[in-house]
Amino acid sequence: MKKIINTSNAPAPIGPYNQAVLSGNTLYISGQIPMDAATGNLIAGDIKAETKKCMENLKAILNEADMGFEHVVKSSIFLADMNQFSQVNEVYGAYFNAETAPARETVEVANLPKFVNVEISMIAAL
Description:
The chain has one domain (2-125): CATH 3.30.1330.40. The protein is 21% helix and 29% strand. The protein has helices spanning 47-64, 85-93, and strands at residues 2-5, 20-23, 26-32, 72-79, 103-108, 118-125. A six-stranded mixed β-sheet has the order 1-2-3-6-4-5, with helices on one face. The longest helix has 18 residues, at 47-64. Pfam families: Ribonuc_L-PSP. GO terms for molecular function: deaminase activity. Belongs to the RutC family. This is RidA family protein.
């Protein structure tokens, strides 16, 4: 059985999907872009600020599912420019304990929704 997870503290989906789906003890979180949930405005121009907004959106969804970053088992980071990897990694890393950090891949892509520079998705488990 699956349960749909949505919160007003993260941006509403911009397509036919939900913010997250809980299936059993596993939470699948859709990719989050640096969009402010309250205003609908994009955070742009500073990759660290953009990454922080993505992570805060993910945190809001995790919280809605009664989870935290300690429950994340897998992350996927999509970048428009791999040259920004170290800055993204610095912000992303602040949300995890290095010894228990999740598995992850980071890939450069040709484009992202709304032409943002970063999108992050996660899988979490109880």
